[in-house]
Amino acid sequence: MIERSKRPVFGLDGTIYWMFFGAVFVASLVLIALGSTGFVAIAVVSGGGFFGFLISSTVGKQYVIRQIIDKSALVGTDVALDIGCGGGQVLLEVASHIDAGISVGVDIWRRRDQFPNGSAYLIDNYKRSQIRNKIAVACANAVSLPFASSSFDLVTSNLVLHNIKGAENKFIALSEMVRVLKPDGRLVLADVGLSRKYIFVLKTLGLSNRKHSWTVPLFFAPFGLIVAERPA
Ligand SMILES: C[S@@+](CC[C@H](N)C(=O)[O-])C[C@H]1O[C@@H](n2cnc3c(N)ncnc32)[C@H](O)[C@@H]1O
């Protein structure tokens, strides 16, 4: 049994939202304790917001990540890339299925998207995990991946596309994901608001076997999952 303190610690997503709801919740509890009963409604709403983000970032995300792994059809020799890997939750889960291949993660590690966040924090999580399969991490933007075309058997990305602002940048990021996929490679995307319209974008980028499904709602929004393949 791993000591609790030695397990990976994954950050919470949507930093400004959970910090805002948390601060308002604590402040309203203090005011209620001091006799201002008018703050009860604010405490209920902000508490709901805070715990909604907390549950989405922990139990909810863990559920989605299990679905990502199920849909990834991983084999031990896969060379996999996780885009926007943050603290490494998907990256390490993928790595645990790969023995002869490698699990690569890229991110620009923005703390406003996940907190804590950073490459050192990811490496610390790797050391805390019992996974000793190969991983590699690099600081890179999803819109300009530093990899040769046709490099990866699997590309995953969880909760990242919504952070890339503008339809054009989102399109460039998707094009980059497709570019680095090997023929027969698999793409598995999950995100808030990831609707069927992305299926049409991936069709224009040449992917086949495109499937969209809605999973559990997280962060007070519908949460979509897309699986597609690059034809041989
Ligand atoms: C909500 S977190 C999700 C992290 C991770 N995928 C997970 O499931 O725990 C979003 C991550 O996307 C990263 N990110 C945002 N925009 C990015 C971009 N243009 N290129 C690469 N990473 C990006 C953020 O730094 C952050 O680590």
What would your notes on this structure say?
By secondary structure, the protein is α/β, with parallel strands linked by helices. It has 2 domains: 4-55; 60-229, Rossmann fold (3-Layer(aba) Sandwich), CATH 3.40.50.150. The protein has 6 helices and 9 strands; from the N terminus they run E-H-H-E-H-E-E-H-E-E-H-E-H-E-E. The protein has helices at 15-33, 40-72, 89-95, 119-128, 167-180, 197-204, and strands at residues 12-13, 79-83, 102-107, 114-115, 135-139, 152-158, 181-192, 208-214, 223-229. The strands form 2 sheets. A 7-stranded mixed β-sheet has the order 5-3-2-6-7-9-8, sandwiched between helices. Strand 2, helix 3 (89-95) and strand 3 form a beta-alpha-beta unit. The protein is globular and about 70 Å long. It starts with 11 loop residues before the first strand and ends with a strand. The mean pLDDT is 96. The protein binds S-adenosylmethionine. The site of S-adenosylmethionine (SAM) has 21 residues, from helix 3.
Write the layout of secondary structure elements.
Layout: E1 12-13, H1 15-33, H2 40-72, E2 79-83, H3 89-95, E3 102-107, E4 114-115, H4 119-128, E5 135-139, E6 152-158, H5 167-180, E7 181-192, H6 197-204, E8 208-214, E9 223-229
Helix pairs in contact: 1-2
The protein binds S-adenosylmethionine (SAM).
